[in-house]
Amino acid sequence: LRLRYNISILSSAGLVLLWLLRSEFTNHSERHRWSYAEVIAVLSIIFALAYGIGGAYLLRAEFSGIETWADAVYFTVVTYSTLGYGDMLPQSTNAKWFAISMVSVGIGSFVTALTVLLGPLIENRLKGVFAVVSKFQKSVDHIVVCGYTKVTESIVDELRTRQVPFLIIDGREDFVVHLKNSGLDVLQGDPTERAVLEQANLSSAAAVIAATDSDATNTLVALTARALREAGEQHKFRIIVRIEDEENIAKVESIGVDEIISPSTLGGRLMAQRAVGAAESVDHD
Q: Which residues contact 143 (CB under 8 A, 6 or more apart)?
């Protein structure tokens, strides 16, 4: 009887709390208005904590080790987190039934809250990935650019100017979020993995550009792309690789890529040519 009385008190307190927070459901003028599900999720956590703390304190005489509100909070957190140190134990049947009810209430409340609060985040991320993959599964003659770097920025500018569809693959989450917010089509993943290149529909692409800052990574991308191209007769895409170290050029040529470009080498030679041309022009004058 005492247990039912205590539970009824806690339930009544929960209803009062819901009534006091009713404005969260009806106030449309706030800049950020919580959804019904978010409010219920937060209130379920508050109710679970209040139920455990209040019940443990009211039944403190029937527990070993619970004497103060701090003890009740400690017992509730330890019970809900399933740590179970064993320093506070129920000593009566009512206390045991209350501990069992705490587990039921806690599991239900926290699972509901996690589902409501984290579910939309996961769902939105999956939708974004599926949207990009779905778009390029239907694309033909697009360009797949692997790795987002300073060189990639120039590549993107040129492709945009020529109005050529392209997809960037990068494994860094922060870069992917930034690029998506900038309006670019980006697929998060490791471009050296065949499955990721297949998601980018490389088989129907016009070319793949390995443009990371690492010669080793670019070489692995080229090897994976070549294996994918050789696997199907319809795969005609070109493989273009960025190599910075001139000593690696001959090695990459041997794996059968279509073109190797060294931005640093080209830039250095171009500047030298311009300098020599300027000097010859001065001498001629």
A: 159, 164, 165, 166, 167, 205, 206, 207, 208, 209
Q: ∠ CA 221-224-225 to the nearest 5 degrees?
A: 85
Q: What is the pLDDT of residues 46-90, one digit of tens each?
A: 888 888 888 888 888 888 888 888 888 888 888 877 777 777 888
Greatest CA separation for the chain: 110
Extents of the domains making up the chain? 2-128, 139-284
2-128 and 139-284: identical CATH topology: no
Distance CA 236, CA 223 (A): 15
- Of all residues in the chain, what percent carry a pLDDT higher than 70? 74
Residue corresponding to tokens 């080229």: 222
The fold of the 2-128 domain, in CATH, is Helix Hairpins (1.10.287)
Rounded to whole angstroms, the Cα distance separating 48 from 93 reads 21
DSSP sequence for 217-271: HHHHHHHHHHHHHHH-TT---EEEEE---GGGHHHHHTTT-SEEE-HHHHHHHHH
pLDDT score, position 192: 93
Higher-scoring residue by pLDDT: 267, 250: 250
222-232 tens-digit pLDDT:
999 999 888 87
0.90 surpassed by pTM:
no
Beta strands at 166-170 and 63-64: parallel, antiparallel or unpaired = unpaired
Q: State the pLDDT at residue 128.
A: 56
Task: Pick the closest to residue 217 from 170, 182, 185, 173 (CA basis).
Answer: 170
CATH topology of domain 139-284: Rossmann fold (3.40.50)
pLDDT of residue 3: 45
Q: Which helix (H) or strand (E) holds 3?
A: helix 2-20
Q: How many residues does the chain have?
A: 285
